[in-house]
Amino acid sequence: MAGLRARPAVLLLASTIYFVLQGSDDKSAAFSNVAEFRDEKKLTGRRDALAASMLAGFSSSPTFAEESKPPPRGWQMKLPEGWEIYKQFGVPGGDEMRTKELLLAGDSKGTEVKVLRIPLQTTPQDPDGTAALTLIEYFQIPFPRVTRKTVVDSLSKAFARQKATYAFELEGDGEDRMKDKQKYLLYEFDLTRCEGRQVFGTNGKICQRSDTGEILDTKKYHHLTINTVTPEPTQTAREAFSEVLWIVDISAPADNWGNLTKQVATMTKTFAVGTVEQLNAGRNTSSS
């Protein structure tokens, strides 16, 4: 990727799950990116463990009637004009329990967008991890007990605790949006990165090369993330429903963020997760 350096992202749900995103060969940008539904080989490896307790008291999970198995979900989003797709994959099968990066795209000025799919598997009989259940409750129950601030604080720690994070500051309290009865949470923050070693001295913290000790400049980026959780059918057990956390991370050098209002609006307005029928209806509405 000429002139564009992919930055790693981390999701933390009390315990740490790392996923490093790197770009691949450049491709032409598409008008919209609709996830493909495809069958994948069953995975035999054990999935990453979900988090331990994040909030005491939130231990009940949504339940489904046996006949109401949710249909597969895909996603779509319109990229701004002139953007390039660096990496894109179809939505994996229901047995895939690992975090998957589905899209990495950007422009020539360092602006990026990443789409991530993160399974949060539970079963009605044996819920696994109250952190995941907290997210499920917030996004899928009409009047959740968990607050938006709690969810933003939890999700944003994924970025604040990255090894390269030099400084982190949330902006505002976030915003909920409803689209086709699906709840989306948007929040923003500034993140300053140190691509070397962070050292605390008498004059405060500095960023320096680990080999020579040379002082390095830090880089400040502004982020806007879109988050939602959807139920997904899984093929591993008849009674199991895999809940999936979807994250869209839009980022750019902070000094250029003010010039990206139109581009950011294009992505935030058109990103959606849903069934094939819901996504088709959404595209028809956007184009009318």
From TrEMBL:
Protein name, entry field: PsbP C-terminal domain-containing protein
Protein source organism: Durusdinium trenchii
Keyword Signal in annotation: yes
Signal peptide boundaries: 1-22
Upper lineage: Eukaryota, Sar, Alveolata, Dinophyceae, Suessiales
UniProt KW Signal keyword: yes
Record keywords: Signal
Domain of life from the UniProt record: Eukaryota
